[in-house]
Task: structure prediction
Amino acid sequence: MNIPADLLYTKDHEWIRVEGDQCHIGISDFAQSHLGDIVFVELPELDIEVGAGQAIGVIESVKAVATLFCPVGGTIVEINEELESSPELLNEDCYANWIAVVELNDKSELETLMEASAYSEFCRQAETGV
Amino acid sequence: MSLKQTPLYPLHLKYNGKLIDFSGWELPVQYEGMGIIKEHHMVRESAGLFDVSHMGEIFIEGDNAEAVVQNLVCNDVKAMHDGQVLYSPMCYPDGGTVDDLLIYRCHPGKYLLVVNAANLDQDFEWITQHLAKDVTAVNVSDQYAQLALQGPKAQEILQPLCDISLDELRFFWFQPSAKVAGVECIISRTGYTGEDGFELYIKSTDAGLVWEKILKTGGDRVAPVGLGARDSLRFEAKLPLYGQEIDKDISPLEAGLGFFVKLNGDDFIGKAALVKQKQAGLPRKLVEFSMVGKGIPRSHYEVHKDGKTIGHVASGMHSPTFRRPLGLALVKTEYSSPGTQFDIIIRDKAVRAQVEAGVFYRKKTKSK
Result:
């Protein structure tokens, strides 16, 4: 399982890369490998205000439908439209292929997210149940 | 409740199958390093090996076995020859579907019925309620493992392991006692993928050996394939799945299986209702559709026309072969002609779709 050390993570298996007031968000290796072949991405709407934990998009694999939750509150300022025509990019490299950029409302919300080490342990527990 | 495991379970672990609960069975949905789409293409282009041991096997034996089986199913059992396989729906008196099954005629006093895993218990109960004097039904599901080797290269892989000539085994025929890798099996030229291929019924204890031999002989021409691709392959070939295209509330005529329902032949359970349904005109039809708008149709999504419900999606998914979403929907007959547009309700949003004809996979089975 690839879990880059410089990112933050959620319990819903999203990753967040913070750059100033903006965050790139995407789905983790755990998420893409559990979903399997991703065939459809419904991207968030541009320029909307979202709260942390709000459903902003959908990712569908051959077998499964998964909701994308916004890890932090803010405004969606950019979306990766390439994923609409090539959703399989999320399987190929889920960290290079971000889904959206969120402009943060409240930086303190980042404190609720997991660092790589904690997330790694969280995934281990999710896999093994112990 | 703990999940049941097939005799191949240790091999699913060995080949890193991603195990899921499939109607009470712990079976691989896909294998690591492959995934549903790659496994799907492998079967279309070369060959795939499936563990379908969860399927139910029931022997019907006795002098009146033929009459018993004929009474239970919609297709023409009396026209069968020894060594032949017949696909048929099995109906309730109201024309709803109990299950669909394969019927193997060993001889007129002995048939093997192969039924869906999820329906095995209710099928067996239904069958035993409709036996005649001196006819027995025996559920041998636990004694048999079933492997399916499917794909254009299935024959060339299986032949060297086999003591019969597969060239002489025609589509929907079987050999009741052949040897594969030295192991006694029933082999039929049947499958659930739309490709040429074989299904092997093997004593549970010997199944692992046959599985390994096929993979070894096939080398890179074959790979283990999970239930995910089994579903996408059968879907593209428009082969029905119980609970989706057919169900207790869906008649085989509505599901487009009229070819397998012989209303001019012998009597069978449900015949009167089906005759009546046909005469009155089918209220619903199963149609092929493609998406005009963006989205993936899924089983049981509602179908709307001008805001009103006109049916539901039976099966839908992203088709790996055609690389786009396709669906089968059961809709009111008036909305079933090609070109008709309707909406699929995907997460509360109406997404436009259009009825098509002939956009699904053309089966490559060998009907010679």
Q: What stands out?
A: The longest helix of chain B spans residues 207-218. Chain B touches chain A through 18 residues (CB under 8 Å). The two ends of chain B are 46 Å apart (CA to CA).
